[in-house]
Amino acid sequence: MSKSFIEQVHYIRIPVKDLELSAQWYRDVLGLQLLNITEELAILKVNEGPFLLILVPTEDETFSHFTIDNKQEFSIGFTSPELSKFHQHLIDNQVKVEDIKEDNGHTFFHFYDPNGNKLQVHW
């Protein structure tokens, strides 16, 4: 097959315990645009692009990240041209955040949403 039938990634679903609280956090702390919220899901838009985050409520003990050798690994990575300012913004908003690291010219850090989902941002 020379060309994929898939055009782009449209959305990623993230499990959350408290849908309303999580939607507010993603809107107020991460600055995403809350497009819609129902009892079944919340839809958030990342800037002007086509990419969406869908928050899905669950009572299960589950996360959007996974583990390798019992170490949490992120599934979702964001970009930010103002990495240091964003890091401080998260700290100021009492977000669980790890130190900024650099790896071969790639600067990044990990942080957690209120549900314990591990996320990454890099530049």
Word description of this protein:
The chain is globular, with a radius of gyration of 15 Å. The strands form 3 sheets. The chain has a 4-stranded mixed β-sheet with strand order 1-4-3-2, covered by helices on one side. It has a 4-stranded mixed β-sheet with strand order 7-10-9-8, covered by helices on one side. A two-stranded antiparallel ribbon has the order 5-6. It contains 2 helices and 10 strands. It starts with 10 loop residues before the first strand and ends with a strand. 16% of the residues lie in helices and 37% in strands. The mean pLDDT is 95. With 123 residues, the chain is α+β, with helices and mostly antiparallel strands.
Give the number of DSSP strands: 10
Estimate the mean pLDDT confidence: 95
Q: How large, in whole angstroms, is the Cα Rg?
A: 15 Å
Distance between the termini: 33 Å
Order of strands in the sheet with the most strands?
1-4-3-2
Proportion in β-strands: 35-45%
Q: How would a crystallographer describe the biggest sheet?
A: 4 strands, mixed
Helix fraction, binned, reads 10-25%
Strand-pairing-aware structural class? alpha+beta
- The H/E string reads EHEEEEEEHEEE
Helix tally equals: 2
What are the low-pLDDT stretches, counting only 5+ consecutive residues below 50?
none
Shape: globular
